[in-house]
Amino acid sequence: MLFQQEIIVILSGAAPISEVRGAIPLGILLFGMPPLKTYLLSVLGNLLPVVPLLFFLERFSLFSMRRFYFMNRFLSWLFEYTRSRHSDHFHYWGWAPVALFVFVAIPLPLTGAWSGALVAFIFGVPLRRASLIIFLGIVSAAAVVLATTLFGITIFNSVFL
């Protein structure tokens, strides 16, 4: 059974803003967990909302567009506007999934799994492909955050201790 600290790391990894960028430092620095355990728990937490989010975004959008005239107009405008303004950037390499991977793999604010799921939905990346690409992006982003955290700890210890 998981303990309270592990659950906090998983939930922090699942949260839309912190994701792995907050869960890994939280687990290592605050809770003193081993790096591999923290890495795996934060990736697991970040993966939990991805498939349901991808699955339900389309259904919620279709339901809203059919049911409410205002939502139909707004979402149609939003999709058209976003696709027309950003499809050049998204299709830069000629293969949209590469752009989605890079978007999720860069551990900056607002470029994680939640935003990646939204981007995949808006640009019409199929569910299976989007899930795999977002998973690979999460694993890569978590590796970068883990390396940065461990490097920061090493530098701090060598300078101040």
From TrEMBL:
PANTHER family: TRANSPORT PROTEIN-RELATED. It comes from the Bacteria. This is Ligand-binding protein SH3. Keywords: Membrane, Transmembrane, Transmembrane helix. InterPro entries: Sm_multidrug_ex. The chain crosses the membrane at residues 38-57, 92-125, 131-156.
